[in-house]
User: What shape does this take?
Amino acid sequence: MLLRSLLAMFIILQGGCAGTTEDNVPEQTLYHQLGGMPGIDRIVAGLLWEIAEDSRILPLFTKTNITRFQEKLAEQLCDIADGPCTYTGDTMKEAHRRLAVTPAQFNNLVDGLIRVMEREGISVGAQNALLQRLALMHGDIVFS
Amino acid sequence: MSFPYNQGHWLCVLALLAAQVVHADSKLLATGGASGIEGQAGGGIVPWAVISGYGDFGEWGGATALTRVNLPDFQLDVSSFSIAFDNRFEFSASRQELEVKPLGLTINQQVLAVKVRLGGDLIYTSLPQLSLGMQHKRNRDMAVPMALGTDKDSSTDVYLAGSKLWLNGLMGRNVFANLTLRLTEAHQAGLLGFADGYQLQAEASTGIFLNRHWIVGAEYRQKPDRLASVNEDDWLDVFVGWFPSKRFSLVLAWSDLGDIAGLADQDGLYLSLQLSQ
Assistant: This one.
């Protein structure tokens, strides 16, 4: 509960303002379909709420620096969506090495992400394109 | 042998699942498939490699379904339930009642089935999800099959299925495909009895998710044609599946089942309602 409140506080304080650069990227990129950096920030903030609400995956974040996580995740989504960012965080393998993430937990997070994207009005095509790119990380994230 | 099946039974199973397994629905929407006429997770006429319900690794899941296929001279009613564990093992039971309208009689068949996921994952591995399944069928009303020339009333189908979902597969939509190879002795899926000796048959399903709740697709099931007295045709259907939630889904299809027991052009509506956990 405490963790949940802290997480909520972080989201509110941050107000979704992870680092962004110029938006001089071609119109048709996934980055634009996700609403550019403001859209991605809203998705990440929404996802943090989803995590806070989900007792199955919340325990994975007990040792997570939420500010850094929010920043790096936004940067990563921007990067893989062909936006003007370069992901500078840990590799997915390093970041999840000690967590023993189960396949079920991976899907729980995907479910949360889908709910957020639907709330944000992201098109079906853009949702699927982002999920396709994230799905490639499954092997590095899930403990096997 | 009596059959461990009645409506109270599956309500119990579902209640048990619901009570004991809170949050055991980690698989993504629609990835438990629908319930086919032989009771297993799949399309309507083709069993898929997917495991029924929404239980992921370490979780229980399952489904129960009522299905009706209304044809010019027949009506097939199927009630089925399945339980699954670990997104790996699936056990199912179903009862099929085929009403033969011109004769005013009904052919009953029971199917007990098991499916094991051998490897791969529907979404996350480049290898498709592969499953091995068996369907033990027992036909309880052999009058019609005997009149058509067979007295064998039970047999076990064995199949290997591969299923794959491509995220963003076509025009931004997720695309599903399944291929199933079946060894069978059955005439008309067992409803007209069985032959001696197995034949290999190929079956396929494909569909495209318009969004995560709606899928449209088609299925094909190759069939043997081994009764001398009557023709048997391959089966086809086109379907729309609606998955409003992980608890409920509905499949509506147009099925073309060809000649059945000497009655030509048996095509008609297929409707299936599924509750799942």
In short: Residues 1-5 of chain B have pLDDT under 50 and may be disordered. Chain B has one domain: 7-276. The first helix of chain B runs from residue 7 to 20. The longest strand of chain B covers residues 154-170.
